[in-house]
Structures are given as C-alpha cells and as structure tokens.
Specification:
11 helices, D-Maltodextrin-Binding Protein, domain 2
Length: 330
C-alpha cells in the first residue's frame, strides 16, 4: 500500500513538471509576433499615397511569407491625421497595430498642435523617400507655372490649389510657393490626395500638389500634366518635362518627404524587431523596387526603428522652423 502511494506521488510530481514545461513553452509562444491579423491604419482616405504605401507593404509581406498573419488595412481620415494618431496612441502596448507615418502627417500634428504628436508613438522603420509635384488638368486653362504666376499677380487669390490635409507636406509645399514667389494662391484642403485628384479632374480646383505615385496614373492617361517639381533635380520619364523650381528661378523652393511606419506607445521590443526585419525584407524585394519605387519615381530608403526616431526628432524641429517661417506657426 505504501509503495502504491509513493508511486502515485511520483506520478503526480512527474505530471506537474510536465505541465510546468508546457506552461513555460506556452509563455514562450506568447512572445512570438504576430499572433493574429495586423491592423494597418492609414491616416487618410483610400486612393492616396499613404493608402498605396500600406497596401503594397501588406501585399508583399504576406505574399512572400514575411509574416504568418495578414494585414487588415483600415482607413481613418480626419483632423489632418489627428484621428488616426489618437486611435493608435490609445492602443498602447498592442503589438498588432501599425500606422503609416508620412512626414506630412508629422508636420500636420506640429502645425495643428494636435494632442498626440508622432514622438508619442513607437517608430518602427522608414521605407522610402518621396517627391512632390504641381499638376494641372491637361485640358485646363493652365499649361505652365509661369502663366499661373502671371494671373495670380493680376487677380490675387483667384487660383485654387488643392492638397491633402492641413499642415502637411502638400500644405508646406503650397506655402513655400506663395512665400517665395510672392503670390496669394488659395489652398483647398482635402482628406486625401485621391479626393484632391477628383477635384482637379472635375475642374473644382486649378491645380493640385501630389507625390508622383498619387498622380502618375492620370498623367499616363493624359488627363493631368505636371508643371513643376520640388525635387533638387528634374524627375525622369513622365515627369521629365516638368522643370524644378530652381530652373524657374526659385532656389528656395525644394522639398522631399519620407514614408515610414509607426506603432502604439510602449510596443514590446520583440514586436518592434519583428516589424523592423519585415520592412527591411519588403524593401529588398524586386517587386518593391520595380513595381513601387521605380514605377512611382521614389527612392528606396530603409532605416531601422532607432534611426527613424533620430530622423524624425531632427526633422520635427526643421518642420516647426519652416512652418513658422511661412507663417503657419506663430
């Protein structure tokens, strides 16, 4: 009898140890990312540059098995990015939420004094550099910037130029145009570049400010024509006939944007590392280089989490100073 009791105790201890091992392994599994579908937030309407950026990353990452779980792209426009910033901020420590972080949205949060700034979130990585261009409707009144500048001098505020949101890259590009050409164009704000393009094609605005990827399809269709670019040198292909502002005599007008990814505050370090590696793998694929970067006249530009944070910390001061110079910040 005593021997039987001892055997039962030994068996109980063995099962307990095995259960303990199982629990330890379970905890180890909990540390792997991602465990469920990843919510990928876009701070603008569908059809814009940020939307395409998110959907391209999501498609390449899942198709190439860089992640075992798919992305769910969610558009949350409003408040010039403030709606999405607030939403992601309130997902603290969540390893399954990401957000496209365009430099224009970082600017907008600063200019509009939004309660949530980019530095309150977790920087994940940078994936590309983007250019800016002024475009007009191909069969519209204006064929070049010189004619627009002539007309605006004769009738102040008569020409409407559209852009996505307030206080972002489009808006800064507009304010630089006004300041350095001594003009008074009227800025029309939209929730996304897709909305701005619809307004341009509908004849509701005279021109629009777009990244190449946001307008290249309409240029190919000969519905839209680029008349000036903010890059230091002329762009190629469909943009080759559009002069730089330096060529037009305005050396001060030059602007490039950056496309990055962020997450909620206090995201686990293991999750940050997983997404860092995922983004690096995406930017190294031929599909990304050819079908996204080359096709949209962008520059492939990867930075990890730490370097992205350093970049935006430095740029935030520059954005503040630039907007203050053009009068958007007092």
């Amino acid at each position: 009898m005593k021997k039987s009791i001892n055997l039962l105790i030994s068996l109980g201890l063995t099962l307990g140890l095995l259960a303990g091992c199982g629990n330890a392994e379970g905890k180890k599994e909990e540390g792997k990312y991602p465990q469920k579908e990843i919510e990928f937030v876009v701070p603008s309407s569908a059809g814009g540059g940020s939307d395409l950026n998110a959907r391209t990353i999501a498609d390449i990452a899942f198709k190439n098995k860089f992640t075992p779980k798919n992305f769910m792209v969610v558009n949350k426009p409003g408040g010039s990015g403030a709606v999405s910033f607030s939403y992601v901020y309130n997902k603290k420590e969540d390893p399954h939420t990401l957000m496209v972080l365009h430099s224009g949205q970082v600017m907008s949060a600063i200019v509009n004094d939004s309660p949530i700034k980019a530095d309150a979130l977790t920087y994940i990585g940078t994936v590309a550099l983007d250019e800016l261009a002024i475009c007009v409707k191909s069969d519209g009144k204006y064929k070049n910037l010189e004619t627009m500048l002539k007309d605006i001098k004769e009738k102040s505020e008569s020409i409407k130029i559209g852009g996505s949101q307030r206080g972002n890259g489009d808006h800064l590009a507009f304010e630089m145009l006004n300041k350095y050409t001594n003009s008074k164009f009227t800025y029309v704000q939209f929730n996304s570049s897709g909305d701005a393009m619809s307004a341009l094609l509908g004849g509701h605005i005279d021109a629009g400010i777009f990244n190449p990827l946001e307008c290249i399809g309409q240029i190919e269709a000969k519905k839209v024509t680029p008349i000036a670019v903010y890059s230091p040198e002329r762009l190629t292909e469909l943009f080759k006939d559009a002069p730089t502002f330096k060529e037009l005599g305005y050396e001060e007008i030059e602007l490039r944007e950056i496309r990055a990814i962020s997450g909620p505050p206090n995201m686990p370090a293991e999750a940050v590392k997983f997404y860092e590696d995922l983004l690096k793998k995406v930017t190294e694929t031929e599909e990304w280089k050819k079908n996204y970067i080359e096709k949209n006249l962008m520059t492939n530009y990867y930075l990890n989490s730490a370097d992205t944070k350093k970049y935006f910390d430095e740029q935030s001061k520059l954005y503040h100073d630039m907007f203050k110079e053009v009068g958007l910040i007092k």
